[in-house]
Amino acid sequence: MLLPIPNILSPDELSHMREALDAAEWVDGRETAGAQSREMKHNLQLPESSPIAREMGERILDALARNNLFVSAALPLRIFPPLFNKYEGGGSFDIHVDNSIRGVPGTPIRLRTDLSATLFLSDPDSYDGGELQIETPFGTQEVKLPAGDMVLYPSSSLHRVTPVTKGARVASFFWIQSMIRSPEDRAMLFDLDQTIQVLAQENGLNDAKVLNLSAVYHNLVRRLAET
To answer: Which end of the chain is more exposed for a tag (fewer CB within 10 A), N or C?
Structure first.
């Protein structure tokens, strides 16, 4: 599943975040890269220990918890603390796949990366290039979203960020371990939940069809979820 999710951040939240990030000290992104991706990664990144990164990451986690579309699609069990990167002056990230397991620094927590997320923080008209290209069974999908919007996609996908030739592309990125390990099961549950939401809007929450389908949905989650 490749899913754009609009309006993760409100305009006020986005403005405050960009002001904080613009004042932050960025480092070479290769300092945080693994051996395989170090040669392909050409960007800047906020250190994971940065107080600004931690504060802005918490704001993103709060926004995700309020976003029903994200929760429906990801059914998150654990979310890696959001990281921040900047591409400018020809910066890019060549084709790669994300690590399957990520350890949260300073904790014993390790999570399986089922889903990857990129939250765009720059207006797409403010920079040239910087498209997120994701390889899918239907060909390469190119993503460049408005500031405040996010794309969710399988962590197993090969993907790249094309060179930024003008301006700066600032984004947050992170990974999610879902309660539903199987992508196929997760996709079916998402379709079912979205159908229930439509029916509830049309017929009300107490409609018999809505109640029956809701029971099916929750019983399936109960059967499939890892906690």
So the answer is: C
